[in-house]
Structures are given as structure tokens and as C-alpha cells.
Specification:
Strand content: over 45%
Shape: elongated
Number of helices: 1
Order of helices and strands: HEEEEE
Oligomer: single chain
Largest sheet: 5 strands, antiparallel
Mean pLDDT: 88
Strand order of the largest sheet: 3-2-1-4-5
Structural class: mainly beta
Distance between the termini: 44 Å
Low-confidence stretches: none
Number of strands: 5
Helix content: 10-25%
Length: 121
């Protein structure tokens, strides 16, 4: 019975490794923002602001930017996870401050992360 269990285990590991490699990595990770910088603008939105004291309206355009982040993957306790490399230059339209903890998705099990949003440990 022990040999049969070992054989089944070996087959399951082989199938996962060859046909479902994305199952070896978690779908979502936590990471700390180590560095953040603003990149190019990707669009603008028109804004109208009313002055408090005068009631006067002012119109203008507000640009939206891409941002690049360097991330350190964390374990479930908030400590750096040495099983993952640092993640450099991860782009997002959302702004996060350095030190923020973000949820990061690994689409299709590849190490090509997408930042979902800020989370709290």
C-alpha cells in the first residue's frame, strides 16, 4: 500500500508541475511598497471647484498618472518572504505610499504581478 501511495503521489506532482504550474504559487500575495515613483500621465479629467469664501467657480484639468513600485513580498505574518524575489517596477494606476502593504495577484501563476489594492495586516 505504501508503494502505491508513493506512486500516486509522484504522478500527481508530475501532473501539477506540467499541466497546472500556476497551482504551485499562491494566486494572491501581500507585499510592502519599498519605493514608489510617478511615471507618465495617461489621461486627464476636467474638474470644477467652487471657492468657499467667494463661491466663484474655477475649472481645470487633473492629470492621471501611471506609477511604478518596487515591492517586497511578505509572509502571512508581515515579514519579508525569502521564497520570492524582490518585485521591481510593478506598474499601477493607483497611488500607494512607501511602506504601504498591498495585495498582489499573480495572474495564471506567472511572476508578472498586478497590484489589486492596499490592505491592512
Amino acid at each position: 500500500m505504501n508503494q502505491l501511495a508513493e506512486m500516486v503521489r509522484a504522478v500527481v506532482h508530475k501532473v501539477i508541475a506540467t499541466e497546472y504550474p500556476h497551482l504551485r504559487l499562491p494566486a494572491v500575495l501581500l507585499a510592502r511598497v519599498v519605493a514608489a515613483r510617478e511615471l507618465e500621465a495617461y489621461g486627464e479629467q476636467e474638474l470644477t471647484v467652487r471657492g468657499e469664501s467667494t463661491g466663484e467657480l474655477a475649472r481645470g484639468e487633473y492629470p492621471f498618472y501611471w506609477y511604478a513600485y518596487n515591492l517586497t513580498v511578505l509572509d502571512r505574518f508581515g515579514s519579508p518572504d525569502s521564497a520570492f524575489p524582490a518585485l521591481p517596477q510593478i506598474r499601477s494606476r493607483k497611488w500607494f505610499q512607501e511602506g504601504a502593504v498591498v495585495a498582489v495577484a499573480l495572474p495564471y501563476g506567472e511572476l508578472a504581478p498586478a497590484i489589486i489594492g492596499e490592505v491592512r495586516l
